[in-house]
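Progress against Task 2.4 (sequence-to-structure conversion) is shown through the following example record, which the project officer requested during the mid-term review.
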Amino acid sequence: MTIVMGTSGCGKTRLCLELLCRNYGLYFVAVPLSFGAKDFEDASVWTKNEIHGKEPDEAKKLAERAV
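C-alpha cells generated for the chain above:
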C-alpha cells in the first residue's frame, strides 16, 4: 500500500495517475463532508490524533495501523 501526501499543487494526482497507467491499482479520494462512507475521514482523524507528539518510528507504526 502506498499513501501519497503533499502540499497543494505538488503533483500528487499526476504522480498517481501516471503510476496507474503503468500498474494496476486503485485511486481513492477522501473528501470530508461528502456522501458515502466516512472510513477515510475517520482513519485520518484517528491517525492525526494518535501521532501528535510521538517519536517518528512510533508515529509511522500508528499510521500504518490506521490503514
